[in-house]
Amino acid sequence: MTVVTAQRFTIPEYQRLAELGFFREYERVELIKGEVIQMTAKVTPHCVCETLFCQELIQLLLGRAMVRGQQPIIIPDHSEPEPDLTIVCNVNDNYLSIHPKASEILLLIEISNSILKYYQEVKLPLYVEAGISEYWISNLINHRLEFYSEPCQGYRSNFDYRRSEIDFIA
Fold this sequence. Notes:
The longest helix has 18 residues, at 44-61. The strands form two sheets. Strands 3-4-5-6-7-8 form a six-stranded mixed sheet, sandwiched between helices. A two-stranded antiparallel sheet has the order 1-2. 25% of the residues lie in helices and 27% in strands. It has three helices and eight strands. By secondary structure, it is of the alpha+beta class. It has a single domain, classed as tt1808, chain A, CATH 3.90.1570.10. The mean pLDDT is 88. A hairpin with a 3-residue loop joins strand 7 and strand 8 (155-162).
């Protein structure tokens, strides 16, 4: 009997595969705990939500922090997720030398219109383990914004709000 095991990759191995063109340019993939995960295509509600978040956050944070969209972050040693939006500390080289790591991340936002369970059951524990201080899920399925903060064996604080209860304050 032959036992088949999945190949797991380190971050440098995954980055090298990308450099070599192993993934098609239009493919949406990310590295989660050593596995290359194919992400779903974005649909219109997802795109609109991401655009609106981005516009508001850039205005609110101008000069104080950087807003990155669909950009990799580093979670040693085997994860390089690409959250929908990431708010990170400003750094001199604008992350040209290396992607942001957990200590530089102020907030992660994922937008879900189809794979909510993936964000709640796979990414949430990953971000807790990494010590990401704030994580939001824009839950388009149930029209809610879920807030998670204070990571420690799960997030100690979590709240959710209906769409009608949300308003950005400058």
